[in-house]
Amino acid sequence: VALRLQGASPQDAQPIPSAGRGAPLPLSLAQQRLWFLTQMEGASEAYHISGAVRLRGPLDTGALRRALLTIVQRHETLRTRYTQVDGQPRQVIAPQAVLDLREHVLAEGQDAAALLEAHAAETFDLENGLPLRLLLARRGADDHLLQVVMHHIAADGWSIGVLLGEFG
Fold first, then answer.
1. What phi and psi, each to the nearest 5 degrees, are found at residue 96?
2. Strand 48-56 to strand 143-151: parallel, antiparallel, or no bridges (unpaired)?
């Protein structure tokens, strides 16, 4: 390969064509492994990635929803279902973003950590649902917790940071 690249100029480079999104796409090797494990073991929280941020001050929940919806629209992996087509696992990317943002008002004395743990532990239905779930827990008028839970088939630990950075 190195010999073929010697003497090549940037003008010789061919653009990489975009993959069409009209048909289901094959899974990457890492996605295939996680899909296979899910098929063998069943849905499990072992492959969930979770992070939360505390939001203090007045919160415009409409603006929050629009910001999160924009992020989901921007990242195809957050709009992808994983299903079988002709016996093979495939990615099916939704053309439009859908947001699963649950809102919960914490009762007086309710344990926020337990609520976040329960939300993070809920299993994903990768065939029928998306690999992203969000929870907005209201602790007070100006105190909220926003939790992001993603399935590892669509994200890694680094992805939570990217998502929260874009959100910020």
1. -120, 145
2. antiparallel
Angle between helix 61-74 and helix 157-167 axes, rounded to 10 deg: 130
Segment 23-37, tens digit of pLDDT? 889 999 999 999 999
Q: Could you tell me the strand order of the sheet in which 80-85 lies? A: 25-26, 88-93, 80-85
d(CA 121, CA 12) in angstroms, rounded, equals 50
Instruction: List, for residues 135-162, the tens digit of each pLDDT value.
Output: 999 999 999 999 999 999 999 878 877 8
CA dihedral 8, 10, 13, 16 (to 10 degrees): 150
Run of H or E including 99 = none
Backbone angles phi, psi at 86, to 5 degrees: 55, 40
Residue 56 has which token pair? 């203090």
